[in-house]
Amino acid sequence: MASRSHFLVPIFVAAALLTGCETATNTYDRMTTLWSKPLVYPCPDYRILKDAARLVAFKPGSGRDLLDINVESAIGDARLECLTFVDKETKKGHMEAQFAVAFGARRGPANTTRKATMPYFISVTDKKRNVLYRETFNATVNFQGNQSEVRFIGETVKLELPLSPDIKSTDYIIYTGFALNHEQLEYNRRNQR
Question: For 50-64, how does the pLDDT look when each residue is reduced to its tens digit (9 = 90+)?
């Protein structure tokens, strides 16, 4: 029995030393991360275009009465989260902006399918208002049971914004709104709330 316990002691000591090394390494890694603070830039501004913040879609045909509305929708706000990936020395890199639009939708009297699809766009401009990116997306809603109104967040869209000593994150502006046809745009302008 005595020889067995003498044999186990070196194993326990070795295990304790290895554990101590791992702890010291982990502590060193954490401290290194704290000392080398990453560059964090502010998110760019975003804007919801007033004339495109509302969508009234009528059923097919010429009727434009309240009873002819298929769906009415509005953009209430948006969510924006940003991560900065920039080299400390060169100040070059990019920002990953995750952008999601918040919608409200109301089922109109002409909606018999209890479903609706609303096209909307996301656009990015530089500080001179040049359009660098624009894409159209579809927000789809299902009205469950006797539900006539819903609020929901659209898909999260990842935008990669280049950064450099001359280009800051605040030089960009993100725009959103419904992708309206001419008739829908004129309807909004005539019926401003």
Answer: 999 999 999 998 888
